[in-house]
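User: I'm writing a tutorial on reading structure tokens. Could you give me a worked example: one chain, its sequence, then its tokens, then a sentence or two explaining what the tokens reveal?
Assistant: Sure. Here is the example chain.
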Amino acid sequence: MAAAQCSICGCEIFYVKNPDDAYEIFEFRYEDGKVVWLTEDLEGAPEMTPDTEVYCTICAWHGKFSDIS
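And here are its predicted structure tokens:
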């Protein structure tokens, strides 16, 4: 199974923001039904739920985690 892609630009890398620090992000790919973190230190990362806000690393797209999973 291929990695999830942004519906606008096709990028396969997304990020979520630390809920306590909007400038701290955690990058990931979504492959084979699993989140593959690209950020090593996950302290402060939000829990990944269907409603977690995710962002494309290339373009302006953002939406719920359920939109890519």
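What the tokens reveal: The chain has a mean pLDDT of 95. The first strand starts at residue 14 and ends at 18.
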